[in-house]
Amino acid sequence: MTILIWIIQLFFVPVISPLIIGVIKKIKAKFQNRQGSSIFQFYKDLWKLMYKDEVVSKDASWIFLYAPFIIFTVTIAVGASIPLFASFLNGPTSDLLVIVYIMAISTFFLSLAGMDTGSAFGGFGSSREMTISALAEGGLIFSLLTVALVSSSTNVFIISGINILNHSQHLLSIMLAFIGFFIILLAETTRFPFDNPSTHLELTMIHEAMILEYSGKRLALMEWASANKLIIFIALGSNLFFPLGIAQNISWLALVIGIIVFLLKILFFSTIIAILESSVAKFRFFRLPDLLITSFILNVIAIVLIN
Amino acid sequence: MNILFLKFLFGVMFLTLVFLHLTKKNFLATVAYSIQSLVITIVLFNSFLETNNFYLLLVVFLSLVIKVIIAPIFFTNLIKKHALAFSVSTYFSTPLILIIISILTFIAYSDKFLPLTSIIPNNQALLSIALSVIFMSLFLIINRKGALSQIIGILSLENSILAFIIFAGLEQSPGLQIGVIFNMFIWIIIASVFISMIYKHFGTLNVTSMKNLKD
Amino acid sequence: MLEIITPSVSFFVLLSIFFIGAISSLIYQKNDSIANFLSSFFSIIGSLCGLFFSVSMIIYGKNLSFIINYPYSSFFKISFHIDLLSAFFIFIISLISLFCSIYGVGYLKHFYKKYSIGVFGFFYNLLIGSLLLVVTASNGIFFLIAWEIMSISSYFLVVYDRYDTDNIKAGFLYLIMTYVGTVFIILSFLFIYKYIGSFEFIDIKSGISLIPLSIKNNIFIFTIIGFGTKAGIIPFHIWLPAAHPAAPSHVSALMSGVMIKTGVYMMIRLFVDILQPIPVWWGILILIIGSISSLLGVLYALTEHDIKRLLAFHSIENIGIILLGLGSALIFYSLNMPELALLGLMASLFHTLNHAIFKSLLFLSAGSVINEMHTRNIEEYGGIIKYMPQTAMFFLIGSMAISALPPFNGFFSEWLTYQALFQGVAQLNLSFQGIFIIAASSLAFTGGLALTCFVKAFGIIFLARPRSTKVSSIKESPLSMRIGMGFLALMSILFGLFSGYTSRLLEKIGKDLSIFKDTNYFTSASFYQGIDIKNSFASVSAPIIFVVLIIIIFAVIFIFTFVINKNQKIKIENTWGCGLNLNKRAEITATGFARSIILVFKGILKPSIQNEVEYHDADSRYLPKSRVITIHVKNIYNYYFYQPLRNIINIISLKTKNIQSGNINAYISYIFISLIIALLSVL
Amino acid sequence: MELLFIIASFIGTALIIILIKNRLVIELLSIGASFVAFISSVFIALKVSVFGIYTPLVFLSVDSLGSIIMLIIGLICLATTIYSVEYLRQETSKNIIGFTRVKQYFILLNLFLMSMFLAASANNPIFAWIFIEATTLSTAFLISFYNKPSSLEAAWKYLIINSIGLLLGFLGTLLYFTTTTNLGGNDFVSWQFLQDNAHNFDPMVAKIAFIFVLIGYGTKVGLVPMHTWKPDAYSKAPAPIGALLSGALLPVAFAVILKLKVITDIAVGPLFSHNLLIFFGVLSIAVAALIMFNAKNYKRLLAYSSIENAGVMAFGFGLGGLGVFAATLHMIYHSFVKVVLFLSSGNLLLRYNSDKIKNVKGALSVVPVTSVLFISGFLIVTGTPPFGIFLTKMQILSVGINTHPVASIIALFFMAIVFIGFFKHVTSMFFEEKQVDIEISDKHIWLIIPPLIFLVLVFGLSFYIPPFLYTLISDVAVKY
Fold first, then answer.
1. Does B81 reside within a domain?
2. Residue C363: predicted pLDDT
3. Is residue A217 part of a domain?
4. C614 has which bridge partners?
5. What percentage of chain C reaches a pLDDT higher than 70?
6. Mean pLDDT confidence for C533-553
7. Beta strands C64-69 and C77-82: pairing type?
8. Is the pLDDT of residue D312 over 90?
9. DSSP letters of D34-89?
10. Closest by Cα among C322, C150, C298 to C230
11. Which of B107, B138, B207 has the CB atom closest to C664's CB atom?
12. Percent of chain D whose predicted confidence (pLDDT) is above 90
């Protein structure tokens, strides 16, 4: 029984993530009152890319070749060790700092791969990515720390296990931490105010610039990994800050409810992101650090307010 | 010899020193120095009379020969050889010199130095004159720019110390005094050799020309 | 077998090996290869014995102390006291010197005809010997002697390549700063001697209550300045980025891996062991110094284009992290929470060990790159991974370890430091909580910025196309250098994997100190080698993370290369350059990479950006031939503190010089005036 | 009886040299004389360590301090004579000086050594004064040896300032005799005699006398306000003479001050003389440190280093008790190290024939052995740990921190500035690339061996002090 749940936990993130991208694109299309592609379009794109031939630059080294696999593995590993629908699958890799620093591995190899091909776009993309992720890390650790202090444990599953009433005493600090976390979510997954995921304009693109040189299977993996990352952050955002509806014990009913509630949360988050993307303009690059610093300050205030 | 005559002698010594401060001519300076050393030999002779120890007679004779006769001869033929009639000027103007001399004598006479000058109470007056002469000869060396007058300053310092010692009752055994005088004699020879070398190298006896050893 | 080698005779055998090595390489200095062989042979054997000695000491947990009294002066005795803390530092010293000596065998070959290798061997062995003496001495004067021998021998190693003038300047700055630091240490020992009457650490420890608190604070300030200069904390760090790059690479690895730790060792020995009942503000000051050093260290590293200066700044950053651990330990102990203090001390010791390993790995790999490229400016590197694949691999492992990425050892010591700081934030009241929050935030930002800096370093040096023609002519570094680096990389992985076991040993070392005698463990071992904080606040297990990552990577690679679209063709083409053929100008440069971060932090760094433009012909300003942009960060410490200090002393010395005015009358007046003043003042 | 050997040998060689024309004989004679002096000073030192005092004649007696100084002079005179033989041969080969100058050099050298030995062993203060005056006279011409205007100026200043100082010292020593005159007998007055009835010495006169003595003999030692002649004299004198002046003459002058200090301490109590010595000591360390910071000429640098070390010794003796023990040890180490430094600076001068620091570049590759000697000499003299001077300085400071904390902190601060200043010049002289035109040669054995012996001596003495020397030093620590 637990092995089945483990398998679901392992495959849940990679399976669902393309759906979310489709949903967000569909909502954005609705806002620009055009039909937009179906929500399963992203699955088809991945399938298409899997079977295309690949072009690799002669300047690239083994890092360019193996980076996609490392990044994809990281998203799978983190996906498996965070609470999606059940909060009893406690594993040693689900410590708060371990998750943050394993995500740092993916940023590390992503920007190295970006620089490896020796094109100007890749270089600038990695430089911007590293600037943002360097500043975002402080805010990320501190927002998760608030929640950890509230539930007096840094293990992600234990945090999601705490019932909602306990949060009510620290409602204000949890809310502040959530806002901070949401800014970090947008930064880490390079969503709207930080970077426009759909553009290839070299002046503004960050994430796209690094995967510019990829093609075929590796491009598919990269796209898929960024989708997984979005799901991971949404899962962290929803299950740690609003831990209601997560299965506490191994019973089919609780699990089904857990999955449904989780899907609803994901839907809710993706609508917020889509609304945000079609209403707010992309910030100038040097205003982003101020945004990240505000998120950091919010988290610090949240921690101070706890006791 | 009674105390009055000794006071007169010390007065002569004091005047020679004041004269040394003011004189412009080297020759007159050497003359003043020979008068001074004459005074010292008389004083030595007086101490011989009191203790009638024959070795002292030898000391008197030696100091007479060296200080009164040989030293001035050296200096005069130096002056003749290099035509150094005029001694070089001083740092302070003459009225200022007189003021400083009076300050020094005042310090010597002040009660600060009472323990020093009253080693032998009844010679107290003589010792304070000797002390003021010591300070004045030191000031002479500082004030004068001429090499020859500096040497004369040092020799007069030596004379004044001898005078002070004799009247403070600290007179040494004749053997040591001969040693000291012999030392002074060699010193005079070396100093005069140096003066001729300075004249050869620097062309003048003005000490201020020798200032390139700064760093 | 381990039992017999712990008595004191084995320690003397250890010391004598190094001194024999020093003397013998000096004797054979005429023939370079013999001298090289002798010096590295003895240093390798010596460090192996050092390893055995320290490991046996730690496992058997015995303390050793023996005294040889020096007949001619009453207060100076050659006395050793080796407890587990010094054994731990002996372990670090011998581990790093073992691999540096192996590396050195190959590296010294390119010095063969230029300088005498015998002299190098002499000072190299002397340095390691004096390092061992420093961490075991327990008499103030004997410690100062070992300390100064260490500084002098490392000075002569820094200026070894003496035909290059800025090596000389760097060496000069280094020795002056260390000397000033030693003067402060002498001052603090003198104050201690004034109240306790002996330089023996044991007597000081027992008689500590004699020293009044105000004097103790002075002693603290002097020791912080003295040992801070050696450890390279922020205000006193200016010698570190100058001296470490100047030394031959395996010496700079030894210096920044081990020598700056002697400053940390003495801080631990003094603050945690000897001057123990200490006020709280000491720990707070160390914590603040730690956070400032770590944050500013990594920021200055970002602006660097000289690979060894970049690594030297990172040493400052990591020393800051070690001080964070130490500061939190001191604060906890003075607020009588001994278990948390033990945790903080464990974190700082573990990070000292890890930093020694990955910093020397980085310096050695950077050294072998410089050895081939003959220049330290990373703007001229690029694409070296194709010519030196193994060195690139070692540098990658080193940079992943230093930016605390999980499978390697850097992460687990930083994890422990984080736990110590989180406990501080969780359990202390408001005023202390603020300081711990500052420390934790500086640690978080440092982690992020270190990651950026090492992406820049690794990317610019090894990846993409060569930026200068020299790159095409280089070849992989010789075998002995690769062995040295390989073992260090292996050590970095092993200490990551067995971090649970090492933290147990560190806890045992911590408990050996007198103040932690009766504190119970705050962390406990779980069956799969993880580290668990008490009441399950947090737990991490290195092997599980490692296994999970490895399995998933192989699964993903297997699935996506062999299962889906097995016969996919991969074409090798030029990078897409919008139709132009990309030359080295298209690639990002180190300045370009770091420009955005520097502009974000321009308040702190105050960068000055100059760009020179060269035109084809002078009058028409429309066709620029070449445009060079240089970002320069002003060294504010030099500018606002050290330069004015030097000018003041210079002015005063010029003033006193004109005492020697050359005028004889003036000289005589000095004598006369001093006579009169003395007489008047006395009577 | 050995003392007579010394004096006789020196006077004999001085007289015979006047008559001889052959240069080799002159050199052999002087080396022989200094060898005799060395052997007999060792014997005297052994005798004194056994009997405590050694008086061959009524007016010559050697106590423990005197024997240590005679040992120092003996060792240094042997080394400098051997060195000056080779040094002058080099100079004549570069035809800087002719044969007459060499003859004059050796005559004056022997007279100088004789007067130093006599000054160290004189029993009567005035007797000691006469022989110190004799040293001034004999070295006057040695300093103006090169007959250049600058060396003449240096010699003139040396002569004038020293004579004034010694005359003041003369007055001071004579004032000490007020205790004996009322006893009537003017038989031979020795140090011991003065010391015995120092109790009926009028305290005020004692204070004035000690000030005159300190200022007077202080000029000879080179404490700060009276040090002005030292840099000029040491930089213009030939290197062996510089070594003798700073290595041997300094302790002799210091011994006289110490002997008179003992008498004043009995009369007035130690506090008075200690404060004065400490004041002048710290002042000398401070001024020497500051001037050394940007000196231009490396021989003047060594002169300032002697002034600084004289200051350290004065500070040590001023502290009393353990400080005296450390200061005597410091005196021994300093004299030997100064010889190493001066003789190697002589070699540098021979090779670069300019004593400006900026003209000496990359010496480590031009004259490797001499530079190693100079650098290790520098490390020893500034008190870097493994060597003896660090221990003595630490001992002085640790005694000082108890009684005079402020003074010792100031002293420590200025000792650091000394190190920084000296080190700045050493690096600029030794480490860069060598100038193209100077060819590498360090082959004159006899220029290298004397400083090398002394370096080994200092190195050995830092770790092992022979028992007889140890008894002598501890006896000095008790008496002074």
1. yes
2. 93
3. yes
4. C626
5. 97
6. 81
7. antiparallel
8. yes
9. HHHHHHHHHHHHHHHHHHS-EEEETTEEE-HHHHHHHHHHHHHHHHHHHHHHHHHH
10. C150
11. B207
12. 42
Q: How far apart are CA A68 and CA C288, in angstroms?
A: 40
In a domain, B215, yes or no: no
Task: Tell me the pLDDT tens digit for each residue of C196-211.
Answer: 888 888 888 888 888 8
User: Is residue A22 included in any domain, yes or no?
Assistant: no
B neighbour chains, 3+ CB pairs within 8 Å? C, D
Residues 6+ apart with CB under 8 A from C177: C229, C236, C238, C239
- Sequence-ordered list of residues with C-beta below 8 angstroms from that of D7, at least 6 positions apart, any chain: D114, D117, D118
- Touching check for B167 and chain D: CB below 8 Å? no
CB contact under 8 A, C587 and A118: yes
Between CA C415 and CA C436 the distance in angstroms is 15
- Within a domain: residue A261? yes
Tokens of A182: 């949401």
- Give D27-69 pLDDT, tens digit per residue: 899 999 999 999 999 998 888 888 878 787 777 888 888 999 9
Q: List the domain range (segments joined by +) for residue A219.
A: 56-306
pLDDT at C2 over 70: no
Of D130, D187, D205, the CB nearest to B115: D205
Residue C634: closest CA among C642, C622, C645: C642
Q: Given CB atoms, is A203 within the 8 Å cutoff of chain C?
A: no
**pTM score, whole prediction:** 0.91
Counting Cα atoms < 13 Å in the Cβ hemisphere of D57 gives: 14
- Residue A16 in any domain: the answer is no
Chain C environment of A54 (Cβ under 8 Å): 568-571
Q: What is the pLDDT of residues A198-220, one digit of tens each?
A: 777 777 788 888 888 888 888 99
Distance of CA D330 to the CA centre of its chain: 12
Integer Cα distance of D169 and D183 in angstroms? 24
3-class secondary-structure state, position A36: coil
The answer to whether the CB of C364 falls within 8 A of the CB of C307 is no
From chain C, the residues in CB contact with D394 under 8 A are 76, 141, 144, 186
Phi, psi of B206 (to 5 degrees): -75, 120
Query: Smallest Cα–Cα separation from A241: which of A140, A164, A149?
Result: A164
Residue closest to D308 by CA, chosen among D375, D380, D382: D382
Give A102-127 pLDDT, tens digit per residue: 999 999 999 999 888 888 888 888 99
Joined together, the tokens standing for residue D321 give 């008790």
Residue B31 lies in a domain: yes
What element of type H or E holds C202? helix C201-206
Residue with tokens 């130490």, as numbered in its chain: C326
The whole-number pLDDT of residue C1 equals: 46
Instruction: Specify the pLDDT at position C150.
Output: 93
| Selected residue of C654, C657, C667, C668 to mutate for chain B interface (largest B Cβ count, 10 A) | C668
Model confidence at C529, pLDDT cuts 50, 70, 90, reads low
> Is the CB of residue D16 less than 8 Å from the CB of residue D33?
no
Query: Helix, strand or coil for residue D229?
Result: helix
Kindly list the distances between the CA atom of residue A105 and the CA atoms of A89, A154, C452, D254, in Å, as whole numbers in the listed order: 24, 20, 12, 73
CA-CA-CA-CA dihedral for D53, D57, D59, D64, to nearest 10: -20
Residues 6+ apart with CB under 8 A from C442: C290, C291, C292, C294, C295, C320, C324
- Phi, psi (deg, nearest 5) at residue B79: -60, -45
pLDDT tens for each residue of D98-129: 888 888 899 999 999 999 999 988 888 888 99
Please state, in angstroms and rounded to a whole number, the distance separating the CA atoms of residues D258 and C484: 62
SS3 of residue C377 by DSSP:
strand
Q: Looking at the predicted structure, is the pLDDT value of residue D380 above 50?
A: yes
Number of domains observed in the structure of chain B:
1
| Confidence band for C264, pLDDT divided at 50, 70 and 90 | very high
- Cα–Cα distance for residue pair D410/D415, rounded to 1 Å: 9
